[in-house]
Amino acid sequence: MTSALTRHQRRLTTVAYALFAPVGWFRRKVDWVVGVEEVASVTRHLADAIPGSVSVVQQPHPFYDVDYDVVIRDDEGRWGRFRRLYGGAIVFAWLLRRARGFVYVGRAGFLDIVDDERRFEFAFLKRRGKRLVTYFTGTDIRSLRLMCELADRTGRPNVGSKLAEARPELLTDQYEEPVRRRAAVADEFSDAIFSMSVDQTSYLTRRTHPFLYFHPDANFTDDFSRFDAPERIVVLHAPSNPTVKGTALVREAMNRICAERPNVEYRELTNASNTEVLAAIDEAHIVLNQFYAYVPGVFGIEAMARGAAMLCSADPRLEPDLGSEATGAWLVTPHEHIYEQVSALLDDPRRMRDQAVRGNRWARDHASESASASALARVLDEIADGGR
User: Fold this and answer.
1) 141 with 198: CB under 8 angstroms?
2) Is there a contact between 258 and 264 (Cβ–Cβ < 8 Å)?
3) Residue 171: which domain range?
4) Interatomic CA distance for residues 120 and 323, integer angstroms
5) Does 61 share its domain with 208?
6) pTM of the model
């Protein structure tokens, strides 16, 4: 991104905002704009949970077949290059005239400005009296250096330390400084910040609210008949990133288990669409989520919602943002104990079913769309009343 283009985008934002003044008088007001990056359907779920919101993304996520109110980029369209370079500034100015507040998901902004970390956008909208929520999802705010320090202190590898081990070049100022600036900008301008305090260890200094999952209510089941004397036990793993999900350890454990137990089938999905993943969960008895994280991944929530017994390394005793209610919702499984924990469930089919039921109940009460929407509404109402 050239400095000239940066100046053009900023200038266009200012001019467009002035030209769009009548929009604020004649077009319907919206409460919140949600965007501009899609991460595991978080943007779509947030927009669905906020009445009167507008969803906007730079471009859709390839693995999620969902619609948005505004898609900024269309590289195949006639105006593809113009939209890529200047569409964000125009959409930002247009929505700024209509919205009372913005929820930014991930690290992206409307403008493509290198090293800015959205400072121009945040300052621009705050000067115009808009509310601002930053919603971080993981690598967008997580400091690999701080995560490595955490791993050294605890003797427990984590998502950040494993990623740094695989890619040492990420432990450089070139990677770390943008994360530090991103946190500083969020601290300075946000009315509320969503992030996990341990799993997303960062340079944020402000109070944060726990990440909310917003799993659709319609995707929950109360049918656990798959556990009624099954002839074959299906164990599923669907890593988005095998390095940080512990996939090598999962394969090692499952190769051993399948050799010992002919009635166990191990299935692994990679680069699959969300539709394929959900269909696979519906056939699974046990789902292996991730084994270096302090919280369940979205895949783990999907598994519990759809009635599978879920195993992962997340532990409410280590990540306070999970809350004590999460105790027992899944089988806490440190990375070195995958074989033992899966074997223990296989030895006791009744326990497998009970685990699935507990997980389903917790996910419904704490990770469903309705439960998450209520928690989010409390924060947004507090902001609307002037709280920070």
Assistant:
1) no
2) yes
3) 3-141+167-214+371-384
4) 36
5) yes
6) 0.91
